[in-house]
TrEMBL record:
This is Aminopeptidase N. Its cofactor is Zn(2+). Residues 89-306 form the Peptidase M1 membrane alanine aminopeptidase domain. The lineage of its organism: Eukaryota, Rhodophyta, Bangiophyceae, Bangiales, Bangiaceae. PANTHER family: PUROMYCIN-SENSITIVE AMINOPEPTIDASE. It comes from Porphyra umbilicalis (Purple laver).
Amino acid sequence: MSVYTTTITGDKTLFPVLLSNGNCVESGDLEGGRHYVKYVDPWKKPSYLFAVVAGQLVSLDDEFVTCSGKTVTLRVWVRDGDLHKCGHAMAALKNAMKWDEDQYAREYDLDIFQILCVNDFNMGAMENKSLNVFNSKYVLASPETATDSDYNGISGVIAHEYFHNYSGNRVTCRSWFELTLKEGLTVFRDQCSAAEGPGAWTPPVVKRISDVTRLRSSQFPQDAGPMAHPIRPESYVEINNFYTATVYEKGACVVRMARTLLGKEGFRRGAELYFERHDGQAVTCDDWMKALVDANPHGPDMSQFMLWYSQAGTPTLTVGTTYDTSAGTLTLNVEQTVPATPGQPTKEPMHIPLAVGLIGPDGSAVPVDVEGTPAADTVVLSVRKHKESFVLRGVPDGTVPSLLRDFSAPVKLVREGGVDRLTTAFLMANDTDDFNRWEAAQTLGMDVILEYVSAREADASASFAPLSDGVIEAFRKTLRDERTDPSLRARVMVLPDEGYVAEQVTVADPLLIHEARDSVKKQLATALRADLEAVAAASAAATAGEYKIDPVSQGARALKNVCLQYLAALGESATLDKCLDTVRNGSNMTDVLAALGVLSNSPDCPQREAALSEFYSKWKDDYLVMVSWLRIQAMASRPTTLSAVKALMKHEAFDINNPNNVYAVVGGFAMANPVGFHSPPNGEAYVWLADVVLQLDKKNPQVAARMVSAFTRWRKYDATRQGVMKAQLERMRGTKGLSNDVFEICDKSVAA
């Protein structure tokens, strides 16, 4: 780590803006139409945080007054013409600065903080000291061009990169093996800021649901596949391949578990000690954990907890219950298993915080009373052994346990004896932990979908059984429950993702899973039609007028658009006409893209073609909107989407040299469209993807390697699909001149 003084010179016409890390201490003109600037960064940093910028840029300027009264200049640099889209990014930056002061006592340490926005960038952003470099997707927004999700993404990534100023910059990693030290901690910090900080855009539980959904869709499959690795890997061929969901998302879960075990105050003491003890140092995950332990001398023993840093794989907790009527006790019998992963055939039991609550027969909370812990509505049990039991006292007969509350650990939860739909529906309606209300809905939906899949696998001609009244009423009750936040109701109504369903079966048939899920959706839409129409109308009324990004407005839009998706599943022209009208006349991009997505997923119809064509004509000059237009078409759940994707890659809106375009079209199709990617029976899409990867590898190996991840779970499918996928992995692996980025993923995938 070094202190940097940087002098930059350049042609004043070609490069009027010259930027680097630290404070600008000197600037002036030189002979020959040139000029110079001198920056001094007084804080030691590793070389990867060094940055130099030169170009024709304009800036949005503001300032922030720190907790000690120091005024900090803030600048967001963009191309001329984009200045009006920077306001939300600036507000998000100021919110992040305030949050870091309030929650971690971290005051900004320089006189200026700057953000640079560029279109062509592999990553979302980079935390270069005091001069963050951002993909334009995470800076630019206006109601006409950005969705609620875009606004939220900007807030989250701005916060993440700013928080790196301490968790990553002032205290950095001793080696790349320690990457989760800065990334897991910083992801956790940005998650908390988004849920609880100034400018929070959604209720905390909805943010938690979003984070867990992402973990399950991206990290759980990684933990179950050939690229499984601990959050602190032991080896790598190419470090770029380890900027993974495991290092980031699971790493954040490990930090969250540490806070759960130590308590919020204990965790804060430990974090502050860490920042103070190791300021200006390159350290390890062990140093982080030692600071937490040293700050909490009377806290729990965290030695076994360190296995989360060294063992790969997603643990499974199987929980059974035994009720003693005479004693009024409920015993939880817990068994944990940690699966074998590449290079780690046997595992030790983990230290797993299991948050537990109790719901009485009348739907009210029952205090959890377990020996050694004060009674409370939620108690955290430390599961440390392969098998152990916990006795809960004073439990009325008929009480239902609420397990893994707020997703207290990144594990799979299995209830002994399988899913009881009546009990699950009861929790969906009454659980006092809102995360577990959503989880109950996911469990209920998953159980029905898997039942349909099993029935069709046993008998290819079998019809799907009608949904039971109990399942329908469970969803109806949530949909119409006005006491529940609209954003949570919207989340509860969304059925489990097809990719997550595929992870629950031994051999996945993506087309059958889609058909089963679609059947559940259509049956719910038919049964709840009047309810869906009423809720959609009420939500539309609540969001009429000026566009706002506050939590209430976002929740209402989310609920309205979920209702729209259900109603569109009925395939009626009136709904498609309404969607087309929204595409043409919608007042905000959230609603417009929701309607366009519905039409893009619909069978061929005049409304679909008109919407896609007119949308392009209107927005073809807006780069980020075009990225959305490309992605929506690539993700269309239609068996003919491969042909559409090939055409999109020849479209003037697509540039294979632009990472965002590749992520939208190639990534959107191969990794987020099971129907499209797996539909061609001859594996044509697999061959196409391998061809694209080899083309990309010559231009941008990092982006190419990301696309290969669509093949890593090739053993999950039937023999025919396996054969074609494996052949493509072997073809790519054997290509002369292949990058280490792509080679490592292909090689590990084939060997698994």
